[in-house]
Amino acid sequence: MDADLESLQFAFGQHVLASHLISKKVIPTMNTSGYGRIINIISTSVRQPIMGLGVSNTIRGAMASWSKMLALELADTGITVNNVLPGTTKTGRLNNIINAKQSKFNISKEEAKNIMLAQIPMNRFAEVEEISRSILFLASLDASYITGVNLQVDGGKIKSI
Fold first, then answer.
1. CB–CB of 10/58 below 8 Å?
2. For residue 154, which phi and psi values (nearest 5 degrees)?
3. Strand bridging mode 36-41 / 150-153
4. What are phi and psi of 103, to 5 degrees?
5. What span, in angstroms and rounded, lies between the C-alpha atoms of 23 and 46?
6. SS3 category, 125
7. For the chain, which domains are there?
8. Element holding 120 (H helix, E strand)
9. CA-CA-CA-CA torsion for 26, 31, 34, 40, nearest 10 degrees?
């Protein structure tokens, strides 16, 4: 409720509108070749909202819906459209989140990290390469019959089916 309209509009433009414009540019060439892959990197918040990230959760949900519709529209063309939903991944952003949690709760960095790890059944954060390999799979010929999916790569964090 605290999000301002400008934040929603900016995020919608960065994600949904940008993806739509890029897709409109590349799909004609993909159609000509009878082959193409559109892979969006979204968030596990598509399955389970992340507290405190209302704008992000909303926009990621919109991206998932947009992607599903595009996958259905292109299903018989040889072009697949899929989403990767990465879990907590070792990036610079993760360090920022840990530092913010440390400050907010006045705990050590190690405690903040352990709180996050306790939510992941595999008890570790994803390596960037693990997320990359899921993207490479969806881009490959091995994934030719997969379209319109949200592939969770999250170490089991999301509890829903």
1. no
2. -135, 10
3. unpaired
4. -70, -45
5. 21
6. coil
7. 5-89+126-153 (3.40.50.720)
8. none
9. 40
Beta-strand runs (E) in 31-112? 36-41, 79-86
For each of the chain's 161 residues, which pLDDT tens digit applies?
A: 788 899 999 999 999 999 999 999 999 999 999 999 999 999 999 998 888 788 898 999 999 999 999 999 999 999 999 999 999 999 988 999 899 889 989 999 999 999 999 999 999 999 999 999 999 999 999 999 999 999 999 999 998 88
pTM confidence score: 0.90
Angle at 98 between CA 93 and CA 103, to 5 degrees: 125
- Residues with Cβ within 8 Å of residue 44, at least 6 apart in sequence: 50, 85, 86, 87, 152, 154, 157, 158
The owner of tokens 């919608």 is: 12
Instruction: Return the DSSP state at 124.
Output: S
CB 134 within 8 A of CB 84: yes
Which CA distances in Å does 110 have to 26, 50, 105? 45, 21, 12
Q: How far apart are CA 44 and CA 150, in angstroms?
A: 9
Rounded to the nearest 10 degrees, the angle between the axes of helix 54-74 and helix 18-33 is 20
